[in-house]
Amino acid sequence: MSDNTRQRRLAALSACDRILSGTRPATMRDRLADMEAGGDLDGRPDFYGDGPVTTLEERVADLLGTEAAVFFPTGTMAQQVALRYGADRTGRSTVALHPLGHQEMHERHAYAQVSGLRSVWPTTAPRNPTADEITELGEPVSTVVIELPLRDAGFVLPTWDELTAVSAAARAIGARLHFDGARIWDSTPHLGHSLSEIASLADSTYVSFYKTLGGISGAALTGTAELASYARVWRHRYGGDVFQQWPAAVTALAGLDRELPRVPDYVRHARTVAAALSALPGARVSPEPPHTHRFRLWLPYPAQALNDAALALAEEEKVWFAAGWQDTDVPGIAMTEITVAAPALAWTTKEISEVAERFLSRAAR
């Protein structure tokens, strides 16, 4: 996407009165309002991780029921530390990853390039590995990574019984279990258990503060006090011990207060939205019903036609349907990710169908 197209799309989305997928882009003034909501701005800023950063760490550790949590500027850094910790503690340089997982798809293989680790794939199926697949790994591994939900497979989750079985299987082969929980906030409705119950199955969990929660940036690595002590040392060595990070911390606290309680509503309404979209001619939704408030939608049109239609609808009617379409391996079929958040909650099935009809009529021109 060219810079001009991106700016035009952002401007159109910002001006929309109604949004089905996603949220209105935040301005810097919006971020300042989040800071007001997330903490006492008359207090002192953090100094290398105290103050509001410590408050956030304690809040997250309490939510996930862990001994400690350590703030990181990025999730990529947090996950490298988690994998390095496992390798150092077990003496094993191999980790079990999914080929669609974040470490393989979006971190430029930092675990290998920076830490000298190597990976083995328990499965290539578009889902997280099963307990049997963990048990049948052909070599010892230091850490088994499970991404909750597995984003690049379509935001899919295991069942609670499947997840508990994977936890037991990882321990049985002498491996640590690490949850890539960037979007673990979205996972509680499908799994039917609290954040602390989910995190209790793993030795460590990474969470993101801008995914779902809408913070500026930042992440946390949670686990034992020993892991936290190790993580603080390696955070410094990786260059992540930043002088002040209070803006990220207070917007994360605001997100925990505002967005986290609404996630169950988002997930419930995502099922309504998905059902309405799956009824469109030639449409396919996956997973159906959605496991979280995000899912994938395929339509029988070229991506360019759908992106142009989304932009035209936004500029002409001030209604945002869905954009970010990408062509697939099947000619004439495009896919996008749908995110059901606060702006979508007011949409009825009838309204979704009516707007979809106008959207598709533009795509067919």
Going across the biggest sheet, name each strand in turn. 2-8-7-6-5-3-4
Q: How does CATH name the architecture of the largest domain?
A: 3-Layer(aba) Sandwich
* CATH fold title of the largest domain: Aspartate Aminotransferase, domain 2
Which range does the strand content fall in?
5-15%
The total strand number stands at 13
* Distance separating the two termini: 21 Å
**The level-1 CATH class of the largest domain:** Alpha Beta
User: How many domains is the backbone divided into?
Assistant: 2
Unreliable spans: none
Mean pLDDT: 96
Order of helices and strands: HEHHEHEHHEHEHEHHEEHHHEEHEEEH
Determine Rg (CA atoms, Å).
21 Å
Number of helices: 15
Give the helix/strand class: alpha/beta
Fraction in helix: 40-55%
- CATH homologous superfamily title of the largest domain: Type I PLP-dependent aspartate aminotransferase-like (Major domain)
Biggest sheet architecture: 7 strands, mixed
